[in-house]
Design a protein that fits this description.
The complex is a heterodimer of chains A (113) and B (112). Chain A has 113 residues and is mainly beta. Helices cover 0% and strands 51% of the residues of chain A. With 112 residues, chain B is mostly beta strands. Chain B has no helices and eleven strands. In chain B, strands 2, 4, 5, 9, 10 and 11 form a six-stranded mixed beta sheet that branches. Chain B has a five-stranded antiparallel beta sheet with strand order 1-3-8-7-6, with no helix packed on it. Classes of the chains: A mainly beta (113), B mainly beta (112).
Chain lengths: 113, 112
């Protein structure tokens, strides 16, 4: 069974550009979570999608947005990139409720120059 | 606001030693607590999930306990091996938050 897959593995952008990160959950999982892990900082919760709806959002500015598609895959968009957006972005999926085990992908390393 | 603390931040032990990693949280109204392992630059691998009604979970050489009333969890690793070297994170899911809150992790080094 395939795990959570994220693409691209690495992404290099310049300040002010937009970045799009993609995540495919484990088959049968309806919830997708996005986390940011900046160097030297812990995992910070970004967004939670379930059944195509945004269920919760972390303390990030509106230029961080996303969506979940009918096949439960998800996309994270970061507009007007800033240097401090450089981080490992991790996607996780679960079977649909927050009580379930989280499974993480390998992440997208975003570098903003 | 839930706060999760992991002590120690780093730990170095010789191979074969048994060890305990600690996780504490401030809000005991949780659904569950999950322990993860993260290798450098990689994603997280789930190790154990303890539901709020459970006291412990075991998988191989790993045993995790949960004391919700005191806001504490421990991860016990028996007979440590160099391959256990990684950062270990705990995460709690609150009943009213709809998200997991992570600790900063304990970086474990097991020396051959």
């Amino acid at each position: 069974e395939a795990g959570v897959t994220q693409s691209p593995t690495h992404l290099i952008k310049t300040r002010g550009q937009q970045a799009t990160l993609r995540c495919s959950p484990i088959s049968g999982h309806t919830s997708v979570y996005w986390y940011q892990q900046a160097l030297g900082l812990g995992l910070q919760f970004l967004l939670w999608y379930d059944e195509g709806e945004e269920r919760n959002r972390g303390n990030f500015p509106p230029r961080f947005s996303g969506r979940q598609f009918p096949n439960y895959s998800s996309e994270l968009n970061v507009n007007a990139l800033e240097l401090e957006d450089s981080a490992l972005y991790l996607c996780a999926s679960s079977e649909g409720t927050i009580r379930e085990k989280l499974f993480f992908g390998s992440g997208t390393q975003l570098s903003v120059l | 606001k839930q706060e999760v603390t992991q002590i120690p931040a780093a730990l170095s032990v010789p191979e074969g030693e048994n060890l305990v990693l600690n996780c504490s949280f401030t809000d005991s109204a949780i659904y569950n607590l999950q322990w993860f392992r993260q290798d450098p630059g990689k994603g997280l691998t789930s190790l154990l999930l303890i539901q709020s009604s459970q006291r412990e979970q075991t998988s191989g050489r790993l045993n995790a306990s949960l004391d919700k009333s005191s806001g504490r969890s421990t991860l016990y690793i028996a007979a440590s091996q160099p391959g256990d070297s990684a950062t270990y994170l705990c995460a709690v899911v609150n009943t009213n938050a709809g998200k997991s809150t992570f600790g900063d992790g304990t970086t474990l080094t097991v020396k051959p």
